[in-house]
Amino acid sequence: MELTLQSALSFGGMVGHMSYFLLFVSMVMRVMWVLRVLVILSALVGITYDIVWTKDPVGVFWETSLVVVNVVQLTIGWMQNRAEKFSSVRRQGFGNQELLKQVKSLARLVDVIMRRAVCDASAALRASFV
Asked: Which residues contact 20 (CB under 8 A, 6 or more apart)?
């Protein structure tokens, strides 16, 4: 895509603008889950833009990483809120330790995946300069 007014106002340009507009709107949200949902929508639009119009694999990688991180964080938040609803049951001695273990293992899995992805991206970047 060229840097012209015509390309900026084309359908493809509008898709790119929509991605950034959703990201901008997400930054003024006060409710965390709404912010994350808008960031996910922004990233999905960005992935579409990067694949169809700019054919940018780096953009696709980072937008996909953004989706994964936010989906995992929404899931962890949902599981923690769900666990808090059972606090009265915990007081009776029936603690929901299994749910907490699942949340911790999910967080470890995301950590391993992100470390692997960053390592692969770093290796690819180094190889591109050789």
From this structure: 42
Query: Is the pTM for the entire model greater than 0.70?
Result: no
Phi and psi based region of residue 55 (left: phi greater than 0; alpha: psi -120 to 50; beta: remaining) = left
CA 23 to chain centre: 11
**What gap in Å lies between CA 53 and CA 56, rounded to an integer?**
8
- Cα 31 to the center of its chain, rounded Å: 16
Q: What is the pLDDT of residues 36-70, one digit of tens each?
A: 999 999 999 999 999 999 899 999 999 999 999 99
Q: Residue 117: is it exposed, middle or buried by C-beta count within 10 angstroms (0-12/13-18/19+)?
A: middle
Contact criterion met (CB below 8 Å) for 46 and 63: yes
| C-alpha–C-alpha distance, residues 109 and 7, integer Å | 41
- Count CA atoms closer than 13 A to 106's CA, side-chain side: 18
Q: Residue 42 burial by CB count (10 A; 0-12/13-18/19+): exposed, middle or buried?
A: buried
**Res. 2 pLDDT band, cuts 50 70 90:** low
